[in-house]
Amino acid sequence: MSRDHVQSAERPAVGAEAPFLELLARGASADAYEQPVLLARAEGRSAERVAALEQAKQLALRVRSEMEGRRRREAELSALFETAHDLAGLRDLDAVLQAIVQRARSLLGTDVAYLSLNDPARGDTYMRVTEGSVAARFQQLRLGMGEGLGGLVAQTARPYVTDDYFKDDRFQHTQTIDTGVRDEGLVAILGVPLMIGPHVIGVLFAADRRARVFEREQIALLGSFAALAAAAIDTANLLTETRSALDRLGRANEIVQDRSAVIERASDVHDRLAELVLRGGGVHDVAAAVSEVLDGTVEFAEAGTTPDPALEASRAEGHAVRSGDDWVAAVTAGGELLGALVLRGQPGLDPVDQRTLERAAMVTSLLLLARRSAAEAEQRVRGELLDDLLDSRDRDPRLLRDRAARLHADLDATHVVLAARLDGTAADADQEAAARRRLWSAASHLAGTRRGLAAARDGGTVLLLPLDPGDTATDLARRTAAHLGTAVHDAVTVGASPPVENLAARPDVVAAAYAEAQRSLEALRLLGRAGDGAATEDFGFLGLLLAGDRDISGFVERTIGQVVAYDERRGTDLLRTVDAYFACGMSPARTKDELHVHVNTVAQRLERVGRLLGDDWQSPARALEIQLALRLHRLSSAAQH
């Protein structure tokens, strides 16, 4: 037979390829290519026509397969190019590794992808990045060298793949690894080594929660991502070493320059401090002047805000004391601790500059004493304004704002009410009264420096302090307890209210917030936490037991309200899934049996719960409160029905 006859036999009849070209153009599924042949047979077309259509179908499927392969290779090359681009502009190693794991999971179409790194110091390997994982135990795995599929990859420096992890006896199974894999529900796992030169530094994995055969092209693709991940880690290590070397050189150069000007600075600071005293400068003026002379940042810190060991050492010795990279000089007067001057980031301070800092601390103490008498009068005025707010007197918002403005306070800002009380035992009534006066004086001084208010009340002291952005009532209570305790040399317990706003228009909220602060104070004392500070929100479910009016619905709303609202809006079943997850020992594999759903459904629901409640929702403390809230919500729902 001639060549022309052969080519003619391989080509379908004219017109037979038309329906298949249309299917190719619109990207139809492979099953759709059977329809033209089946239709021709149903219509009774000739055997030659059916054969031509069958031949055209086979050619079209070959073309479709080739096009799919090219699209897949283009996507793989694009992902590798993007990852290489991220590596070229490396700024955050964690972000680059996360991108590598995400792209590997997406292109291989697996349920989970993760990356482990070796820890030479501990002699084991640990999870560094995961994508698609929902089991907390799996995400925290630490494995001994040579254990599990990853250990086999690390030992041989070759890729390994298993279609069914628990039936594969080529590697060493351990209870720790198997439990983590079972919790995650993994079945098929592919692992490739991360290598820098001849050394294996970790393993990159792709895994499915069902049996699966990984193709050769997929193994090669994951190996390419592993090479990029290893390069990213090596680059980050080199950058860290380079930055450290540059930092050391920079510090050495600064020391050389500082030594040449030390005598000139000592003379300069003496003149500046004398001028400040003569023209009535303030504490922060002293700090600014010393900052310029010492070429650093000098700050005045209230007592209780600096590291206690360094501050007490400076107070006892009468000299500036080093604390890490900082220097602390106590500001004292007649044995009373007024605060400290802190020089930031100057670990190599020479003796001349150290004496300069000490002299500045002495000048600061003189300025503070000179202003104390004027401050005491202002403190009394602050106490009167707070008393009026607590008693809901003087309800005219304009008058309240004017009185606060004269004291440099802003009643329109967000505030916290704090109840403070001494926990020491006085020998007699006179000593107890003296201790209360010291507490009120220290609290008034703190309120004056923080643009707040303070007053003596109910055997203790009440403060109204503004809440800084990003700060919490708990942090403010703890700092206040530490500050007042240091100032009066005794344990001071501080309870805080939730944040309150719009005090000028609603002065009655101050009295309600004070009651909340007193309940927090009493809770601390009942728990034996004398000298500590806390807010209502810190006690969680325990606050329901200690509070006079138990806000059960508020506790449930704060703990799982977002999940309840999501289920109500979307008609989902997240709340029941979380309940079953805890009941099944936090195992997705057992949870799917309890709910009669696929393990991927459980994983997707738990991912959504994590986005609603935060990444730490499975931590022991959060898990306990969530389970209690679930129980209360279930009981409350049953009562309503």
What does this structure look like?
This protein has about 650 residues and is an alpha+beta fold. The protein has helices at about 5-10, 20-25, 35-40, 45-90, 95-110, 135-140, 150-155, 175-185, 215-260, 260-280, 285-295, 310-315, 350-390, 395-405, 430-450, 475-490, 510-525, 540-545, 550-570, 575-585, 590-595, 600-615, 620-640, and strands spanning about 110-120, 125-130, 140-145, 160, 190-195, 200-210, 295-300, 320-325, 325-335, 335-345, 415-420, 455, 460-465, 490-495, 535. A 6-stranded antiparallel beta sheet has the order 3-2-1-6-5-4, with helices on both faces. A 5-stranded mixed beta sheet has the order 12-13-11-14-15. A 4-stranded antiparallel beta sheet has the order 7-10-9-8, sandwiched between helices. The protein is elongated. The protein starts with a helix and ends with a helix.
Q: Which value, in Å, is the CA radius of gyration?
A: 36 Å
Helix content: 55-70%
Spans where pLDDT lies below 50 across 5 or more residues:
1-10
What is the overall shape?
Answer: elongated
